[in-house]
Amino acid sequence: METLGYYNGEIGVLEDMRIPMNDRVCWFGDGVYDATLSANHIIFALEEHIDRFFNSAVLLDMDPPISEPALAELLSSLVRKVDSPSQLVYWQMTRGTASRIHSFPEQAKPNLWVMLRPYSLPDIYRKVGLILLEDTRYLHCNIKTLNLIPNVLAAEKAKQAGAYEAVFHRSERVTECSHSNVHILKNGVFYTPPADHLILPGISRAHLITQCGKLGIPVSETPFAVSQMLAADEILITSSGSFCLSADRINGEPVGGKAPELVRKLQDALLEEFYEATQVKS
Question: Domain map of the chain by residue range?
Fold first, then answer.
């Protein structure tokens, strides 16, 4: 199969799958999701992503219809059904199928979705542009929910500006991006916003912190301001789909570029970890 869709046990080509209109995702975006990459038909950091998925479900008072080990086994079996060894592995759970009422339906059982499609790892060494946007999202950014309209609008604004990402800030405090975490390097120290309710606890963020420890780079999980970001030696963007990118401009103005060797060490370390975990020759 070139692509794969899964819905409550039904499997088919992604483009041919059909979902009930009364699935609460259609009315309210009522659900949670997670995603990672596979290479050589091996899913990267699967346990960490599943842990975050179940934590998001708990925070939304949802009861997954499957255990963590069973979900891991299901996803691992599904990726082997797709021809391409390198895939985007995406799964989500919605609260169930029921008539449209805002409160939780009493009898509905959660629906489990999986989407698999070929994916090529992008060039993580390229420089990217960013824009700044006021963070007007709600105060549950730590939950990986399907309610992503503010993120979608921000990503579109970045696209229209010819930038890769939009960096959110609340007043002066930098939070995260539309689909990435953001960090800075200054005087050899790695700064990242704390994993509170204002950011998603990114898996790539966690791996980058680990690599900093291995490389002897001090880590500070403290808030930083827009002004500090603009004056940083380097600005880094992390996500499960691109690992770690560095920015060279914000709102069209040059930034970063003062610690390229340190950035390269971190990027190399993340790539090597991915290749080792998925048994791909680098």
Answer: 4-118, 127-277
